[in-house]
């Protein structure tokens, strides 16, 4: 099926217009596409000779922990381009697609009742031998097996055979094969002892005694089929969430330290950010809802991760959702989940992010973009912990801590009647305002140096710090994009630097040249208001340049300036310039 790169022995477990789930048995962990890799696929639609060619990308891949113990590999592939009209072909097929149920060992007398009860609701496939069952299961679209007939020995042998195959594919009983095997129903006048044992072990989903009422039979078969669909979707969501968690943990430490300075020296110098971190340390251990307010790029999502990491929920999921990227209907479905058939395209039950975050934390960015209707539902979840999926009737209780973020002043949004006051008052019990980078220039160079060290590691570069003109450009830049803009500027500069070369102004984006010109103009013509202040600023810049040119050694800088080293050292301390003694 996966033709480039090749992956043998795979079958589909879920198919939609936007992607497909695959179960495969590769010969080794390196066979087949990796996560994030582009793939080309060709597959034949069940019950159709139509072939679909598509290009996509592997969104996630889950390999068994111990390959030698058996097991299968699960992949999720997102489609992004179809060959010719194959996209329309797939869409038409899915519109007509129904659940497939294999009826096994049914006698002639039973077929009439089965067809009357099930046809029109599911598509039936009939098998009269174990080999024929294998053929049907190899199609990948059978969601349930209904074993009929009065031959108890044959039924026992088939159930044990299927149970053994599932155990061989997944010896732990916790992997994808365990979740995604078709559900087995047994319909016979009596149930032998061995089948009772298998039923108690969970190998048989439901036991039915004929004659079955059509409605009861239909409900049992549909429940088995839909339960498999729900488990497939839950497994997909869990694997994707697990992948995201592992990826975020791998890069969390450098990002947190680099973006916020909470883990390594020199940390923050500005009083504003020191106060923010103190508030975070106070709020993190408690279940209180936190509202983060600040301009785009100030690090609200990173701060939310810090809060989660410092809380007692750090071992549980942190789920992130941007409320500004989806419509109200899609966002409601994403947050609270939906049941199959709730709307067009809802082909399976979807658990929702609040359910996936149960026991952990959910971070809702740009919460000001939610509608009043959705805000009322969020308030209900915060107050009661009850989540009801779209189109569903059952309510699930969850334990989730909410961290919300906004680019605007929510109090002003409430006064303008664009945000519900009751939800705001529920969120504002603990507000943390993140100052923009232009209001804390003391942090710019420290963050820049940390970013250089970070990108030297991740990009395998060897930039040696910041030149004087680069420092001036960074200090006087307006930073409308805040810390995110600074991070991107340094990443670009590190890539442009030669080996063992400092980051210079020419490596920075052209837009920052105005910052450098402004710095020189301020020193030359008077950003300060008095002659004394202007002379102090000029002296500071001269001393800084001398220290930079002599490796921070005071005695050497003093010799170059023809000054007494003790006098220069005193002025270095007065101006707050870091220096290294000889």
- Choose one word for the global shape: elongated
Q: Please identify the top-level CATH class of the largest domain.
A: Alpha Beta
Mean pLDDT: 78
Which segments are poorly predicted (pLDDT under 50) over 5 or more consecutive residues? Answer: 171-178, 249-266
Domain Sigma-54 factor interaction: 269-495
InterPro entries: AAA+_ATPase (IPR003593), AAA_lid_NorR (IPR058031), Homeodomain-like_sf (IPR009057), HTH_Fis (IPR002197), P-loop_NTPase (IPR027417), PilZ_domain (IPR009875), Sigma_54_int (IPR002078), Sigma_54_int_dom_ATP-bd_1 (IPR025662)
Pfam family, one: HTH_8
Keywords: ATP-binding, DNA-binding, Nucleotide-binding, Transcription, Transcription regulation
Q: Explain this structure to me?
A:
The chain is α/β, with parallel strands linked by helices and 582 residues long. It has 5 domains: 2-95, no CATH class; 100-233, Response regulator (Rossmann fold); 253-435, Rossmann fold (3-Layer(aba) Sandwich), CATH 3.40.50; 443-514, Helicase, Ruva Protein, domain 3, CATH 1.10.8.60; 536-575. Helix content is 45%, strand content 17%. The chain has 21 helices and 19 strands. The protein has a 7-stranded antiparallel sheet with strand order 2-1-5-6-7-4-3. Strands 9-8-10-11-12 form a 5-stranded parallel sheet, sandwiched between helices. β8, α2 (108-118) and β9 form a beta-alpha-beta unit. α2 (108-118) crosses α7 and α18 (513-526) crosses α19. It starts with a strand and ends in a 7-residue tail after the last helix.
